[in-house]
Amino acid sequence: GVVAPKLDRIIHIKGDPSKNEFVQDITIKGMTFSDTTYSRHFNIFIPSDAAIWLTGARKCILEGNRFVNLGGNAIRLEQQSSENQILGNEIAHVGQGGVILLGDNESQPTKNVIAGNWIHHIGEVLKHVAGVYCVSASETRVAHNLFEDLPRYAISFKSLNSKSYSHRNVAEYNDIHRTCLETVNGAAIETTGPHKMDTGNVIQYNRITETVGRVTGSDGKFKRPHLSWGILLDGYSSGTTVRGNEVVDNAQGGLCVTGGRNNRIENNIFANGREHQVLFRGDTFSRNNTFVRNVLQFSLIGADFIGSAGRWSNRFL
Fold it and tell me: Fewest CB atoms within 10 Å of the CB: 102, 114, 206, 223?
């Protein structure tokens, strides 16, 4: 059959935070959502259509649903939506991403839980997407999810600037396999921090394999694997804890820290990165990073344990 999609969303749970009016305690369970369209005018780095919108929503539960063959994301949270739970859903074959959280420091979603979901084969129209994309969100817990076969990130905690940041988020106990299949300079789990503030974000106890990366060469042919990481603390990401992760078989390497300070990397396994197991890149801002009790292993000729570029003041133990 052929479907001509018309709606860009199917359910919109909408309160009015400006009047202190919130919708809460709604459960959506055991449903299938499919066949939405997507906007033709959008920020290509933050595509934000979705089948379900939570706007000014509190303590709602989306559980055991299937989101398949959508034009946009599965779920969008915005406008002070808080304490919602997105549990045990399948998100697959969608045009954009999985769950996207949007806003600035005043309006961003907070204290939401995204757990036990299976997110795979997303980004079939737009590629700069994530399984869970915190464009601006704080105190989010992303846990016990399975991410597979993604064009870019599995999880992204982005701080765009000092007025729109993602702080005190936790990504833990996730299984992440085959990411960055169609993009370059990305990671399975990525953070950014151009505002140069300590974020308090935590990345712990995740298993990450096969972050690939793909680029078009001067001959017009695709080159892969290329320039991707298991975990990327990008753009001056600071005050982040990376603990107890198993990061194996990634194209560029297991971990890259770019320019940040006050990051703590401890008790991780970084293995079989093609070029580096760990790379630190920085300038005079980059200091007080601590790298302790990690296990590094590789067998590929030409790879190294730890690479460093720029000026650094860090501790390696």
Answer: 223
